[in-house]
Structure formats: structure tokens, C-alpha cells
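Instructor's aside before we start: the two examples that follow are unrelated to each other. I chose them only because their records fit on one page, so don't look for a connection. First example below.
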Amino acid sequence: MGWIASFSYIAYSIGAVICALAAIWIGRKGDSLRADRTPAVVALALTANWCFAAASFEPGRPIVELTEIARNLAWLFMLFRLFANDGRDETLRLVRPAVFALGFVEVLQFVLLLIARRYAVTPELTALTFETAALFRVMVSVGALVLLHNLYAGAAASSRQILRWNAAALAGMWAFDLNYFTIGYITGALPGELAALRGVAAALVAVPFALGFNSRSPDLEFRPSRAVTFRFLSLLVIGGYLGLMLGLARWLDMLTGDLARMTQVGLIITASALALIWLPSDRLRGWLRVTAIKHLFKHRYEYRNEWIRFTDTIGTTGFDNISLQERTVKALADITDSPSGILLVPDEDGSFELAANWRWSNAEIPARAAPASLGVILESSELIIAFDEVRDGVDHRGEQAAVPDWMRNDPRAWAAVPLLHFDRLVGLVILSRPLIERRLDWEDFDLLSVVGRQLASYLAEQAGQAALLEAGRFDEFNRRMAFVMHDIKNLSSQMSLLLRNAEKHADKPEFRKDMLVTLRSSADKLNTLLARLGRYGPPGTEKARQFDLAETARQAVERLGKVHPVAVLRTEPVAVEGNPDALDQALVHLIQNAIDASDANSSVMLEVYSDGVSGKATVIDNGRGMSPQFLRNGLFKPFVSSKPGGFGIGAFEARELIRSMGGRLDVESREGLGTRFTISLPLKSATTIIGRSQSAEGNEVA
């Protein structure tokens, strides 16, 4: 046991020096406005005196016991003076009886010390005196901790800023004494190892206690590194696990024979398997992170690290070269530790469609993922939707009626973050549920709102650059087309002039007849080409007329069905308004694209029907399909094609031709399953009814 005596001497010597230095520092540098500065100096000085006595004499000597009694009484008086920091005499009046009672119990240690020295002549009396003294010390420690808790819990916010360091130091001191004397009371003797550590404990208490008297102590905060804290907790969990396994192994040593060996081997295998499965898991790391943030930090997020990670995610594509839309989802998901997410963007009608999918597996998302009414709510309120609240029936801004059923029914959907750019909604990110369940709080809302606006600016900038690039390509295309049209006009003029001259000067009637037929045919073709080129101008330049949608579709099928199987699943006469030539051209584009995407023996299907408001022509194929990214960013973009050597103008031209007739073109596609294009044109009857109602309204106004 010689090493314990040596360590005890060193520990108490260090405690004496540090406590003395702390007392001197408070006396010279401490906050002079605090009324408890002098009691603090006295308490630290008496603690240093007790450490000096414990280092100089053997444990149990009267001088050591007397200096410890003086130390404890000084700290109780210091606790009493801490209650005066709120400036209210009423507080001191209420606390004074409790402090005096604790002081009286501590003074009884003098009596017990006298009894132990003079009257404890038998082992039974000696044990009874020791147990009583230990019990009194436990009572004082418990009472002091209760008073300290009431002091800090009942203090105002400003007082807590002053008391926190002193309260933390005193709590550590009395908690150590409570455990020390409790063990002594239970075992009948004070533990020598813990007795040697009391000097170190005194030194550790003196440092934060002295910091509490700094004039700048209200501004001092404990700000541990989140990474270091997380790693410390991880090591603590691992250490506790290994300690438990070690304890079980030691306990099994009491068994004998083959049973003991088999049990120990089984324990080792089980412990190793649990460690390999449990310790590296994402759920455990998430639980440690949430626990550390909840109990050790003022804020959930370390904003500097979050901003650096956000910038890296958006600014670099990484090894997989994912798109900006997917990086947008990942940037938000990293903040909330969400394992996946999707990006929805508004289409021309304001309803939402899928634009990016980041690790959201088995996504059964409809073509129109959310109604336009949801976008109106999010755009006006910048509301971040917590889907758990939606499922509980909470309604903040009327979003209950606008949230689609698939979002409610999918348990992965956790939060919806709107992306606003100059108060205009450019996207909506749906985040999946984190591995560790928690509720969104004010800090989540604030950070996600700010990051959402930043991401919206990036998406808007990308869209602007794409529009500029597209406009530049169109300028080049228009410039070249202007030369083509100029040349064609010249050719047409020359041929018309030749025709007039031939009519006037040809000698042979037969020759003249053949020449006239040929020239007229050429001139008609050139004029038709010019009219078609002019169709790319403002819509509505050609007068709409009534025609049968089914007949136009049948003619297109007859032409293209000769080179590839085209099956008509359903057809019925449908009278629509528009330009049959333009519709024929659009249908040819769509059917040809379906043929190019299908296998040689896979039929392209066509349906023509009416829904009562508009005529529908649907082109269906079972080909390769298209990704959501290409549907959003490439399908209707000129000069962007998924086919090798394609010009990327067919789908765009088909949509523009249909729009020029007042219709619309919708598309649904899944990779590996196929594509469905649906043409919608206004019915003749519906157009007539609408025109009559508008005329009636105009007459009423007039």
C-alpha cells in the first residue's frame, strides 16, 4: 500500500497549492462587486489548509479531522452567501434555517471526534462512532446538493450567468463527498484509493470556482467541439460495452469445469458478433449524435461546418457526377441526416412533377405529384411542412387539403422544404425520415428556410443559363433559316417567271402542257414548304377548322404502319377544332419516336377517344422509356436528343404545333417500361359552348 501513501501525498500537495493560488487570485482579480468574494477566499484558504494537513499527517489524525470540519463549515457559509446574489433578503431568510441546520450537523463532528478519542474503548463503540460520523457527512452532502439545486433552478436568467461556474464546482465537490462517505458507511471503512483522490478533487473544484468570480464570467460558455464530443461519447459507449463484457467474464470465473469454459467461449463469440453488428451501425451513431446535441450544446447545428459541407455538396459533382437537382436534395438531406429525398418542380400549370430522385427507392410517384394549390400555399407562406403534423391533423395554412395522399401514406415522407427565389416557388424538396426519430423544431425551420432560398437561387441561375443557351441556339437556327427562306423565295420567283414566259412563248402545245404541269407542281410544293416554315412564328396565324381526329390519326397509321407494327386499340369519331396538317405532322413525330424507342417486334399502340371536353389521341410504346431528369430537362428542349444522331427538334415541334391549335401534349414515362404521349385538342361542341358563354358575358357587360 506504499504507492497509495505516495500518491496521496502528491495529490494533497497539488490540491493545497491550487486552492491557495485560487484564493489569492479571487482576492486580487475577482469581481469586487460580489458580496461573496471574501467567503470564497476564506473557503479556498481553509481547503488549502486541510489539503496541507492531509499531506503532512496520517489519515485520521485530529488535526486533519479538525481542518476538514473547518473547511466544510466555510463552504456551507459560502453556499449561504451565494443566495444573496439575487439581491433579495427574503431569499436569505428562507434559506438561513436550512444552512444553520446543516452547519449544526457538521459541528457535531467535534463531539464525535472527542468520543472517538476518549470514550470509544471497544470495537463496537469505535464502529458506531465511525458510522455516525459518515452518516452525518452524507446528510450534509445531500442537504447541500438540495440547496444548490434550488439556488440554480430558482435563479433568474441573469443570476444563472453569474452562478453557473460556482454552482458546477460546488456540485462536483459535494457529489464526490456523498459517494465517498456513502461507500465508507456501507463498508465500515473509508476507501483508501478514493481518500487519495480527494486532493485531486479539491484542485479540480478550485479552478472552475475561481473562474466564476471573473468579471467576465457571465460571458464564459463551455463550447466543446461537436466532433470531439461525439467521438468521446462513442468511446464511452464502446468502453462501457467492453467493461460489461469483462465483468461478465470475471463473474463466470466462479463457475468450474467444462461448463465454465463453454460459457466463456460462447460469451466471447456473442460479444464479438454484437460489437460487429451494433457498434458500426448508422442508428447507433445517429443516437449518439442526437444525444450529444440535445444535452451538451445550446444549438443543434454547428453552422460553420454545415455551411462548408453545403458549399462542397453544391460546388462539386463528385465521382458519380450527379446533377445539380440531385445535389440540391442531398444538400438539404445532409443537414437533417435524412437518408434520401426527391425534388418536385412546378410545371406550366403550377402542379408539381418529379425532377430529381436522390436515393428514394421504389418511388411510386404519380406524374402530377402535387396540385397547384399546394404551391400557392407554400409560395405565400414559405411554410415547411412536417408530415407527422399533417398526419395528426394539424393545419397551419390550409395545407391539409392540398397535401396529396401519396405523401400522407408514405411513412418515409418527413418534411417538405419549399425553394423560393424572389418569392417565387422554383421547387419543393421532400426529405425522408432520419434514422433517429425526432420532431422538427424552430432551429430546423430557420436553417432549412435559409438553405432553401440559397438552393432556389442556384436552380434559378441554372435555368437562366439554360434559357440563354437555348435562345442563342435559336438565334443561330433562325439566322440560317432566314437564308434558306430567302433562297427558296428567289427560286419560287424564278420558277413563277419561267411559268409566265412559257405560257406566253411556248410553240408546241404538248410541250407547253407538260411544262405547265411540272412547274405548277413545283411551285405548289415550294409554297407549301414556305407555309410550313412560317408556322414556327406566332401561334394562331392559320385559321382553325373542324376535322375528324380519328381520320387524321388513321392516315398517319397507314403511312407508318408499313415500316413497323402500329395497333389501333380504340377509335371513335371525334370532331375537334384545329389544323389537320399540323396535327398530322405532330402525330408522325410522336409515332416515329415511339417506333425508334421500341423493339422490331413490339407494336406501337394508338387510342383516339373523347372525354367530353376534349379529343384525345394517345401514342403508347413499350420501349426503353425516359428518366424523370430527361423528361424535365431534355425532352422538350430543342437540340437535345436521347437518340444517337438526333436533332432533338421532333418532340418540341410536336408540342408547339399542338399548342398553336389551343391543345396540350402530356407525357408519362418510366425507364424500362415505356412511354405514353397524350394529345388533347378542344372539341368542336365545347368550343361552341365556350364561345357562346363568352359572348353572353360580353353582352351583359355592355
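Example two begins here.
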Amino acid sequence: MGDEILQETECTQTQTQKSQVDWSQPNTPSFIPVIWGRLYSTRVSLNERNCWKDTCLDNPPYYDLIQPEFSLGRSFTCTFVMRKEIINESIVKSVSKQHFIIKRNLSEPLSPAIITDLSFNGTFINGKAIGKGLSRVLDDNDRISVTHPNAKIFIYKDLLKNEQDKVPKEISKKYYISRILGQGACGLVKLVYDKTKCTKHAMKIIKKCRLTNGEVNNLTDPQRIMNEVNIMKALRHPCIVSTEEVFDTSDTVYIILELMQGGELFDRISKYGQLSEQLTKFYFRQMVVAVKYLHSQGITHRDLKPENVLLESKDEETLVKITDFGLSKYVGEDSFMKTVCGTPLYLAPEVLRANGQNCYGPDVDVWSLGVIFFVCLVGYLPFSTDYKELSLRDQILRGQYRYSNKHWSKISLPAKLLMKRMLTVNVKNRITLDQILNHTWMQDSITLMKIERLLMQAAQVRDFDQLTLSSQNSDEENNNSDKVTVLKVAVAGKRGLSDNCAPCEPIAKRLRIDACAMTRIQKDDISTTNSCSSTD
């Protein structure tokens, strides 16, 4: 018995070695085709008769989709040719030469297949007509019909789609869930596709979690989450990230957002080290316009930073939009902000001085804009825990920012003066948003024209007029067994929100300053503790 096992083991090892040798041969195919989808023939049909002819032996049970395009029709140029030998003649005679085409971008990870109707007599998905010349996203288990909703010929299987997220059915019916775009302390962001419009969106997933000791987790406090949701629903401006839809369940909030494909301003600065004055002016004016809009709506952002400023496209000159309103607050006549919140590196002095007791106003956003402005122009932070002369708190309270002659020598005097006026400790002397827009440095007719053109184009694509708030409750069971409230994008009336915002969030990502650059800054002959104070 032992000899048989030994012989079997030796035989297995020999086969493995032979297999490894065979695979190493030059004539072995190096490319293994990826089957991204499969079309299963279905027997459900018009008038309870099979669409496919049972007598045809050439009709396989399914068809593998390997190439990025699959076409169906009567034309011999189609990938799948509809012939009366394999399908009922009553259906074939109504099929167009090119009836529909399915495409999939295999270079984009987890992108969906898109089906386009090219026919005169209709292509149907799950019984609903697509429309000639129109497209829609093809999802797993979708039923494809031609010429009539009941003439179901295929069931589509998506072989590249990851496991379906446990999202409410209201979401999975409308959106195709794709890859992860990002993840932070407050939630997960995924790329999703609107199945009907074939448009891309970002879906922010926020769990309403609690800590094990029963205390509320500030980053996922339900009250804080709904604070963000209420604010986002109310905002409609070209320089504010739009909220398309909100799905609220008992334990999770799903926010469908406008997709910003240009990434964060943080990454754009990191890529170039610093931005030119011209490009800074182009981006910064849009930021100021957006913040001015927020303030006009009685909203203070309180967490402005390069990570919360997004770019619409990868183009250099693109729309800039502000996002992440988790720390924002409506400010009315009887509402005053007291909580210490925001990202420490961008906090205004009055926020630190408030210490949860005293009040501060919307001017805190001007200070944060000043820090962003500083970083855009020279590529390093004005205040940081890396600067050891003073604590971060004292640096901010005294307005003693790190000033490097080497970096600022290339910057124009009006830009320096504007920076100084924004990073002024005394709120009464700090520049206002209107004064920033009218500042000498901001007056550039070419930049103004470019921004105006972008804003007009955005207004044509999206309607920024007031919308109506509507909500509906769904009793249909979903994967989470929760009741889902769908909140359409709307302008809600201003409402007083709780003062129980989260305290400080974790310190944000640091700008990538190489060691040599940091050394140059620290050795600069300008004192960081005396001459850079801006308390006027």
C-alpha cells in the first residue's frame, strides 16, 4: 500500500514538472481570453411558443462574450446572425439588419456592458423598450427581448461583476454598482452607473454606527450624517458638488453624488508641487464664489481644505467644486457656532479660542481659504506640527505662518498682500469674500471670461433652479430588510440644525514636501516667530 502511494506521488510530481515545462515553451499561448459576459438562450417567448427552434442542433445553450463588442441582427456582418433556421420566422422577419449592439470598455475596471438599440421594431430589457438610438446599462440577469417584450431571447450574465453589494433594491434597480473610488473615516465612495441614462455617479455610503460602549461615534453619528444630507439637498450651484438622490435606511445612508473625474485639488497640487499664479487665480476665484453662495444660504462650511475641493475633469482649466458638508452648519439669527471642529491645519484662530464656549462666524471659511491659497501658490503648509518653534495651536492663534523667501520671492506682491489679509487673526480686520473678489490680484478679464464660460456651460447641462422636495417610503423588502426613504434632490427650507457636530476630525493628509525642500524652508532667513505675525 505504501509503495502504491509513493508511486502515485512520484507520478504526480512528474506530471507537475512536465506541466511546468510545457507551459514554459515558446509556442504556448501567452494570452488567455477573458469571458466578460454570457448570453443564455431562453425558452420563454411570444404566445407561449419557443423563440428558438428545438430542432436546430446548432443553437448552443449560451454564447460567451469575449470581444468588446457584440452585435445581433439579420446582417451577415453581425456577431450573431438571426436566421429562420434557428429562430421562429415570425420573429426573424421583424428583426432589423442591425438590431442591437452590446459594448463593454474592458480597459475600465468593473465598467458595465452598454446595450444600444439600433432597431425599428424595438429592443427590450426586462420588458421595457430602450428606444431606437438610445442605450442603457446591461446588468446581471437582465432579460433581452427583440421586436416584442414577450419575445425574450437571452438572459445576460455579467461574469466580471463583483459580488452584488447589499444595497437596498431601490438602489440596485436604478444603479449599477461598480468599483471603489475612495474610503475615509466617514464612509466609502463607489462608482455607480445610472442604468437608464448610462451616466456615472459617485455613491457615498455612510454607516450609522455606534461604539461598543454605547456612545455615539462622532464620525458616523446619525444626527451628523443627516446634517450633511440636509445641507447637500439644499444646495444648487455650479461650484458645489450636486446631490442627485439620497436613500436613507435604518443603519445606512446612501448619497448619490455628481461624479468629479478630475480628483481632489490636493492631488493636483501634489502633482505639480505648486500651481502657477494664473492657475491658482482660476481655481481660487471659483472657490470664493462657491463659499459666497454657501454664506448667502446661511451655511458655513467649517472644513475647507484641498481634499474637499474637487475638479470636474482632468483638464487644467476645469470647474472647481466644493464638497463634504459633514461639519457645515446653517447659521440663522438665533444660531451661533461654538463647537471646535474642522481639520486642525486649516482651522481659524477664533475656532480654537472658542473652545466650545465662545461663538464664531462664517469668517472662519475665509481663513481656511487663505490656507488653501497659500498652499496652492508655494506648495507647503503655512502651519504645521512639523514646525517645532511653536505648537500648531500657537502658530494659528498668533497667525505666525512659515514664510520662505525662496518660495515667495517668485510670487507677485498683490498675491502676497491678499494672502496676508486672509490669514489675519483679528476677524474685524480680515478681508471679506466680496473684497477678495474685488481685490487687485483677482482682476483678470481673461480668467473671468473663462470661468464665466464654464459656469454657463454648467447651467445648460444642469438645472440650478429650485426643485421640490419629495419623499416616498418603500415597504418592499430589500437586502437589508430596512424601510428605505428616497429623498429627491431639492431645495429644502432653511432649518435649525443641532450644534452637536463632531469635534476635530483626524489630521488630513500632509502635502508631500520632499526633505530637501523642507530643509530649505527651515533654513530660510525669515523668522517664523516674529516677522510673519498677522494680527492686524
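The two ends are 94 Å apart (CA to CA).
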